Amino acid sequence: MKYLMLIYGNQEKWASIPAEELSDGIAKQDAFNHKYRDTGELLGAYGLADEVQAKLVRREGGQPAVTDGPYLETKEYIASFYLLDCENEERALQIAADMPWADQAPVELWPILHEAKPEL
Amino acid sequence: MTGADGHTEDLLRELAPQVLGALVRKHGQFHLCEDATQEALLAAATQWQASGPPDNPRAWLSTVATRRLLDLMRSEVSRRDREDRVAAATPQSELLGAPADEPALDSDDSLALLFGCCHPLLPVPSQVALTLRAVGGLTTAQIAAAFGVPEATMAQRISRAKQDIKASGLDLTVPEDPERTQRLRSVLHVLYLIFNEGYATTSGDQLVVPELSREAIRLTRWLHQLVPSDSEVTGLLALMLLTDARRPARTLPDGSMVPLAEQDRGKWDRQLIAEGTALITAALPVGQPGPYQLQAAIAAVHDEAATMDDTDWQQVLSLYDLLVAIAPNPFTSLNRAVAVAMVRGPAAGLDIIAGLETDKRMARQHRLIAAKAHLLELAGDTAAAAANYREAARRTTSLPERRYLSGQAQRLGADRG
User: Fold this and answer.
1) DSSP assignment, residue B288?
2) CB of B340 within 8 A of CB of B375?
3) What is the pLDDT of residue A51?
């Protein structure tokens, strides 16, 4: 069963982390990624660019209309996502609880229902 | 085994566990033997394609795999002692190829291999992956595709499992009873999981991934030949055949699912039903029936009925009573509740479901909610049935199931309007 783990945040929050803690935090995150890649349960870990890089795409009269963000109502936005493939929900919850930052911010966990597979 | 035609591929996959099993018995070193066997299989797939299979395919593979194993051992630095041991233990004749009259099947080696791959010490997904590769002879890419994960991930899972076997110094021999029977149960569990993954994929948009259930049947057939006297092995094989027989009727061309009650029974595979029924009929009278035999017997009762109304529900219920007694499980109780409803009326079934709902985890299960919806509909409470179908649709993690359950909710909603 595949799961999506989502981490939220914002610049203010990240900027408040002291530099000496940041490198330690990154190292812990790297160790986490390594650990679950090794077990074959982490399919990918992706960090997103800042919200100012995000674009909003609409189609108006058949033509694409691209505008910049921000356009979010939420105070925090998606910072990174992790794709897991593990035996069951219990295991996914266990991995989510092992996220180094989980004691500071919650980790969202979504079962993945549908997968459009690329043609092989 | 890309590049090999169907016949060659079948032959290679049949020989793979025999070659690997013999190699492991002689040299230990499961992880290296497995790599060596895979490479021999790949070499065979290309060469036999061009020039046809050799006179003794198994000896050809053993020879190539043994040579490759020696290469692999040599390349492992500071392991000269082991290399010497292997070289000394390997008769020259072995490197030239075994005689053509060597027995074709060494059942102990094959069993030992299967036991090793399904060792309870390994995480279950690794047991599944390793069994498909080492025993099933599938390539890592094929296994990755079947489970919808990147090949690199599956490679990591397999290599980790092999490292675990190496690190734990697992004894790759067939243990004596009673451990043998117990370990055989974990093998059956892995085969059952492979079949289920193919029959009702736990995620994704395809309800049926035929390759995996076919592979599970092939491996279970093979295990049945190795241990014909184990009636649970027979039971599992029968269960798979009797379940797979319904495959043609289970999905519509657009991929949506058709529940048992609405299936076109004319599309069921009569040959598989006959074979499964014969197996379970022969196995049942031998001793105390285990859970796989009972599930197979239930499947056989369903498969025998020409229509849903012809189903011998009393018989189904008696079998569920036995199953709940020997292998208690909330999902078995749930299935039993449906059988109770068919025999004694929906209210009796709903009573049992109410009992199961006291377990909070069970109460959130979409299968329980869907069964409740079905029984409420039978009881005539259309509004509650529609609400439960809707809730079950929200809780399932299978897309075809969600489509089906939403459809049921809509149908009942429309009935009211």
Assistant:
1) S
2) no
3) 83
In which residue are the tokens 């009259």 written? B101
Residues of chain B with pLDDT under 50: 1-3, 93-104, 202-205, 207-208, 210, 416-417
Chain B residues within 8 A of A115 when measuring between CB atoms: 148, 203-205
The angle that helices B382-395 and B399-416 make with each other, rounded to 10 degrees, is: 160
Q: Which two tokens stand for residue A53?
A: 């890089």
3-state secondary structure B212-230: HHHHHHHHHHHHHHHCCCC
Q: CB distance B205–A116 less than 8 Å?
A: yes
Q: What's the structural domain count of chain A?
A: 1
pLDDT of residue B251: 85
Domain range list for chain B: 6-93, 107-227
Token readout for B114 is 């299967």
Long-range contact pairs involving B330-333 (C-beta distance under 8 Å, separation at least 24): B330/B356, B330/B359, B330/B362, B331/B367
Please check whether residue A119 lies inside any domain of the structure.
no
Asked if residue A94 belongs to a domain, the reply is yes
Instruction: Return the number of other C-beta atoms located less than 10 Å from residue B297's C-beta.
Output: 25
**Beta partners for A58?**
A65
List CB contacts (< 8 A) between B365 and chain A. none
Cis peptide before A118 (omega within 30 of 0): no
Question: What domain range includes position A56?
Answer: 2-111
The pLDDT of residue B91 is: 52
ipTM of the complex: 0.75
CA distance B295 to B337: 15
pLDDT of the residue at A120? 39
- Residue B153: list chain A partners with CB under 8 A: 37, 40, 42-43, 85
Helix ranges (DSSP H) in B76-102: 80-89, 92-96
Give the C-alpha separation, B154 to B139, whole Å: 10
Q: Which of B251, B293, B259 is nearest to B276 (CA)?
A: B293
pLDDT of residue B79: 57
User: Amino acid identity of A95?
Assistant: I
Q: Which two tokens stand for residue B194?
A: 């492979």
In this complex, the residue of A1, A41, A43 whose CB is nearest that of residue B203 is: A1
Backbone dihedral angles phi then psi of residue B27, each to the nearest 5 degrees: -115, -5
Is A114–B204 a contact, with Cβ atoms under 8 angstroms apart?
A: yes
Bridge-based pairing of strands A42-47 and A108-111 is unpaired
CB contact under 8 A, B160 and A117: no
In a domain? residue A120: no
Q: Does B167 touch chain A (CB under 8 A)?
A: no
pLDDT of residue A68: 82
Q: Which of A100, A110, A87, A76 is nearest to A22 (CA)?
A: A100
Domain of residue A64, CATH code = 3.30.70.1060
pLDDT at position A115 is 63
- Mean pLDDT by runs of 10 across the 120 residues of chain A is 92 84 89 92 91 85 81 77 91 93 90 64
Is A93 a domain residue?
yes
pLDDT at B8: 84
